[in-house]
Amino acid sequence: MEIELKDLITWGGIVLGLLAQWFHLKGRVSTLETKQEMQAKHHAESLGQIYRALERIERKVDGKADKS
Q1: CA 45/CA 55 separation, integer angstroms
Q2: How many CA atoms lie within 13 A of 59 on its CB side?
Q3: Pairwise CA distance, residues 66 & 59, whole Å
Q4: Taking the model in full, what pTM does it have?
């Protein structure tokens, strides 16, 4: 069984290509995870603002109901 230089180069290229794709995808996954965390934080802040606004409205309505 003989192994030629072109075979070694082919297998080396395949391995390098697979490694490059692995690190590329790993980087994309970490980027997506970071974006997901940022969006979750943004949604929590937005819901907090809505909750505070609703509480203010509720206090105003309660105050007007007490005056009547």
Answers
A1: 15
A2: 6
A3: 10
A4: 0.59
